[in-house]
Target: Porphobilinogen deaminase
Amino acid sequence: MKNKIIIGTRGSKLALWQAEWIKSELQKLYPTLEIELNKIKTTGDKILDVPLAKVGGKGLFVKEIEEALLRNEADIAVHSMKDVPTDFPEGLHLAVITKREDPRDAFLSRISNFKFQISNFRDLPHGATIGTSSLRRSCQLLSIRPDLKIEQLRGNLDTRLRKLDEGQFDAIILAAAGVKRLGWAERITEILPSEVSLPAIGQGAIGIECRIDDEFINNLIAPLNHPETSICVRAERVFLKKLEGGCQVPIAAYARLIDSRVLMDGLVGSVSGDTIIRGHIEGIPNDAENIGIKLAEDLLSRGAREILNEVYSRNNPSINGEIAS
Ligand SMILES: NCc1[nH]cc(CCC(=O)O)c1CC(=O)O
Model:
């Protein structure tokens, strides 16, 4: 029996927090197991000055880590589910999805010298500047407040907070999960309800990818799977796959389990926020993947098809498959 495993991870603060968390959970189960981290720079880490929607390509934050798995330079890869494409290279699979953190988006405003800090989205003054590179976020915010100015904001979480504090934006929107994991929860002035900002597919959940045929590793990590989160995130991911969601289209979905029923909301919007097609569906957990497909079909029949065609006719169709952040 092997007594050492290697975790492949990105080197960002959030990625390392998540990899260290998985390591400590495994260490609780297997005190004598030796666990090493292999930090890997991904394309998404290298290209920092271009909005991801413009970079294109599949799995910008996972591809190099997957290659390490296939070369046996890592045994498991720890990812934010939000960054994981719906298709995997041959020989790899998503074995585990851990319990979800807060899936919602968070509003963080600039600490100002004036008496009042803008503490929520509704109170933003006319024409205020919001930092986000996510089409999903800008589409939804612009649909409520077309007067807002959206400015590009990329980089790791600490970089984004620094840019906010430097005064480039009145507020920024980040996933609550990442902000909380890094211990900055007190900077969140408002958690955006899903009617304002429906989260990204998989937001707040951590996934573990590994080689399909590595029985030892699959058995080792199986106890970390959280069945409820797994059901919900898989429903969201079939929704995304059915929509062939690239990162160039605003797409959002959130599924949750309440009283043994799956409740799922989803939307597809135009980049400008002029059009948003929303839907809701419910069903039983055993039918979760069907629920995701049905919701996608519902949106496609009510106008999402036209939005997707419009975007992809202007772009290279090969970008399909990248997750929508
Ligand atoms: N797009 C990058 C990314 N990938 C996962 C998270 C947050 C953590 C999570 O969703 O689990 C973030 C940052 C953000 O969107 O603010």
